[in-house]
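re: that chain from earlier
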Amino acid sequence: MERIYSALTAKIRSAAEAVEIVRPGSVVGCSGFTLVGEPKVVPREIAKIGKAKGITLLTGASVGDDIDGELTRSGCLKMRYPYQSNKTLRSAINEGTVGYSDIHLSHLPEFIDRGGIHIDVAVIECAAVLEEGIVPTASVGASDSMVRMADRVILEVNESLPLDFYGMHDIYNAAGAPIPLTGATGRIGSKVIPCDPAKIAAIVRTDEPGKCPVFSAPDTASETIGSYIVDFLKQEVAAGRQPESLSPIQSGVGSVANAVLAGLGDSGFSGFEMYTEVLQDSALNLILDGKMKGASSTAVSLSEKSLKDFYENIDSLRNKIVLRPQKISNHPEVVRRLGVIAMNTPIECDIYGNVNSTHVMGTRMMNGIGGSGDFARNAGLTIFATASTAKKGSISCIVPMCAHVDHTEHDVQVIVTEQGLADLRWKSPRQRAELIIENCAHPDYRPMLRDYYQAALKNGGHTPHDLRNAFAMHQKYLDTGSML
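^ sequence. v structure.
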């Protein structure tokens, strides 16, 4: 297989030549999702030249420093959608020098396809561009919508990545019709992203494999959380609320997620599948070990060691891993139909089950809501798992009232910390408060939370609160550096 279809070789350009079409004030869409599948040399060149000021940037989800960092430092970036994890960009967002709108990941491609934002240039990394279309790399994200709706397309053909990606993707455009997907790893679309050749303004050949995401190894708290979730799922199977092989699993990014998946593999569960947005190390290991049948995702985001295992086994994995557009991987219709078990990580939870996933102390953006809302509201079972404390115990992750709410109590069924698990289903607010305080809060903070709840009860109401002191723990941290 040739990487570049012969009829398109005349469009091969240097990065400097390619970026001439990116004007000041342009809306640019870049491929990439959780630091994989992103273009590298073209964004760097835009930043290096520095003429295209006032750019609005869209990606599938988080991308690396070659895009977010370089464009921010160069002063080219004006507005960013929908999710980010770059330290430089995060600082600019919180300082107000770069605008940022936090969007559910399933909403972004829908917004693009409906003309909610006009994309001037799409910059897409690919393994090859064939007569039939574009072969993505380790992520799809919103690339298909960007290519479909952009005026012009720049392709980075990355020759360091295997052509064996061909056949792993399932590109489907629902276009408002029902999505005919009834199983997690079913295939309903094409192997490539369709693209009108006339749209392709430039093809830039690259050979940069990119950096691998770095994930913290699961610690004792994460492993304990994983054990609580595994025990809970076993009880759900015994009660007949889950099949023996479990419903498809969605898992967020991070050490807690990896620990939960590893715990499932060690627990005797087998034959289950994933329907998620990011496939991490533990999920790949479960597939390679034969404990997981397969996985649907929009990105494969792996450590350096696991990426090597992925490439060495890509021929067999092509039939077990399906990479979809995020418009499908995160679509509420499919999540609901499959009865997905959704597991995500919050910044903080309050005593009634509301969850903050995005804002530290209620004001400073961390990364964004990502896909957690897509899954939490529509899953068959919704679990939020976190350590009970942060910053070496100076912050309680269980608080009287969340300083910012991304997921209301109506979308949260189970909260888990290393202290224990609270099953909030069919519970009144008062019952939820008692469960969360006693089961999930760290012992150092339980007396404080109990005192708050008892004071709130004197005010009465369906969801008792003491509004004068609802954020007292947050304020104490801001004043002293500790909630204790």
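The first strand starts at residue 27 and ends at 30.
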